[in-house]
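stage 2 :: seqdesign
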C-alpha cells in the first residue's frame, strides 16, 4: 500500500513482521510491496523477501531452500549497501553471511533477524 503521506507502508509492515519472526507473513507483505514498486526498488524488496523466506525455510528444516534464499538475498541486497530506505543493509548482509556459515555447518537455528 502506497500513498504520498505514508510512503511505503508495506515495507514498514514487512520489516515489523520479520522482527516478530513472522517470516511467511513478512514474505507476503513484502512481495505485495515489490509488485507495486518502481524498477529501481524491486531488487531491494526482493532481497528482503529472500531474507524472510530463508529464515522461514530454516525454521521448517529445509536446508536447500534456506541456502538458495540466503544466496539470492546477498546478491539482491549488495548494491544497496550501506543503507537504503532506513534499512541498515550492511547489518542485514552481515546476518545473511553469518546464517550462511551456520547453514553450511548443518545448523538451521538462525535466531531472529534485526532489520
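stage 2 :: out
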Amino acid at each position: 500500500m502506497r500513498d504520498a503521506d505514508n510512503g511505503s507502508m508495506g515495507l514498514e509492515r514487512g520489516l515489523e513482521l520479520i522482527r516478530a519472526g513472522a517470516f511467511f507473513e513478512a514474505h507476503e507483505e513484502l512481495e505485495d510491496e515489490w509488485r507495486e514498486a518502481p524498477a529501481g526498488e524491486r531488487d531491494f524488496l526482493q532481497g528482503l523477501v529472500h531474507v524472510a523466506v530463508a529464515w522461514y525455510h530454516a525454521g521448517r528444516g529445509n536446508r536447500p531452500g534456506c541456502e538458495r534464499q540466503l544466496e539470492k538475498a546477498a546478491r539482491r541486497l549488495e548494491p544497496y549497501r550501506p543503507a537504503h530506505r532506513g534499512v541498515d543493509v550492511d547489518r542485514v548482509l552481515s546476518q545473511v553471511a553469518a546464517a550462511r556459515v551456520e547453514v553450511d555447518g548443518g545448523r538451521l537455528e538462525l535466531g531472529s533477524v534485526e532489520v
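stage 3 :: structure notes
- Strands lie at 2-3, 7-8.
- Residues 1-7 have pLDDT under 50 and may be disordered.
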